[in-house]
Design goal:
This protein is globular. Strands 3-2-1-4-5-8-6-7 form an eight-stranded mixed β-sheet, with helices on both faces. It is built from 13 helices and eight strands. It folds into two domains: 48 residues, no CATH class; 176 residues, Vaccinia Virus protein VP39 (Rossmann fold, 3-Layer(aba) Sandwich), CATH 3.40.50. It is an alpha/beta fold and 299 residues long.
């Protein structure tokens, strides 16, 4: 993408953000599905769909908990968290997105939304949160920390703001997820197979997704952590099911695969049949399209 194309894309997105702000000012959550149907645009689906809540709708948050949400975007998940806990603090770097979040969740008296990135706001954050939520923000660690291991630093820094027994919840893509083998464009760089090829040729871009093993390696290099993986399907953005190592999918169960809303894709094979083969081999966790990760300090 050249400079002109990038500028045009940014201008179009800003216009859509302005339109989205007007929508949340004029309509309620009950109207969003109708608006999505009328717009027929991934932008509005992504920011307004109630399916976005599914990533944490089921999670057993403590009712008296304080939560920090990092990179809240337009609040698609924020409201879900606020409905479940005592207090939520949300950070969003883009001020227009922060306004949209505040407006759509204006009736939630337990919510505070601030403009700012985690690294710039860190010194102002409290140190007694019960949960820190990162839905889609873990890949941005190099934007926050300039050291050699920004992903390690991000997690260790987050723990400085948790009370004893607190948890970090991370929702992220799997760079070797099934959809990327089948022909979906890589989420971070909008191209084919870059994550599968370990981002070779993207030396100037520091953001990345990880495989399950790579995430485990990061966590094991940080001492005394306990962690658990969950597997959102089809992915963490629009999950219809959340699997775990205690309950993995059965053959023929993963049939909602052609869900590419925002860009063109290839279709190199039947993903349902491929998933069946992976499930039969006991490898579904490695090829899950996304992860939801719970991390806490060990005893």
């Amino acid at each position: 993408m050249n400079i002109v194309e990038k500028a045009e894309k940014n201008n179009t997105e800003n216009q859509k953000m302005e339109e989205l702000l007007k929508i949340v000012q004029q309509y309620t959550e009950d109207d969003f599905q109708k608006i999505i149907s009328e717009k027929k645009d991934f932008f509005f689906l992504y920011h307004l769909s109630p399916m976005r809540r599914n990533i944490l709708e089921w999670y057993p948050f403590k009712k008296d908990a304080k939560v920090l949400e990092i990179d809240a975007e337009c609040g698609a998940v924020t409201g879900c968290i606020a409905d479940k806990v005592l207090q939520v603090t949300s950070l969003e770097n883009n001020d227009l997105q922060r306004q949209i979040n505040e407006c759509r969740n204006s009736k939630k008296e337990n919510l505070r939304v601030f403009t700012g990135t985690y690294d710039k706001m860190e010194n102002e954050l409290e140190r007694d949160y019960d949960y820190i939520v990162m839905v889609g923000s873990f890949a941005k660690a190099p934007d926050y920390f300039a050291d050699e291991k920004p992903y390690h630093t991000f997690i260790k820094s987050a723990f400085n703001h948790l009370k004893d027994g607190g948890e970090i919840l991370i929702a992220c893509d799997n760079r070797i997820g099934m959809k990327y083998w089948s022909g979906c464009q890589e989420e971070l760089y909008s191209d084919y197979f870059s994550g599968i090829q370990d981002y070779i040729g993207f030396d100037n871009h520091k953001m990345r997704n990880f495989s399950k093993k790579e995430i485990e390696n990061i966590l094991q290099e940080i001492s005394n952590l306990e962690y658990k993986f969950y597997y959102p399907y089809p992915d963490y953005k629009f999950p219809m099911a959340i699997y775990s190592d205690e309950y993995l999918p059965k053959k023929a169960e993963l049939s909602m695969n052609i869900r590419n809303f925002d860009r063109s894709r290839l279709l190199l094979f039947d993903e349902t049949k491929a998933f069946d083969g992976i499930i039969g081999a006991g490898l579904f966790p490695e090829f899950s399209n996304s992860f939801l990760l719970r991390i806490k300090k060990g005893d």
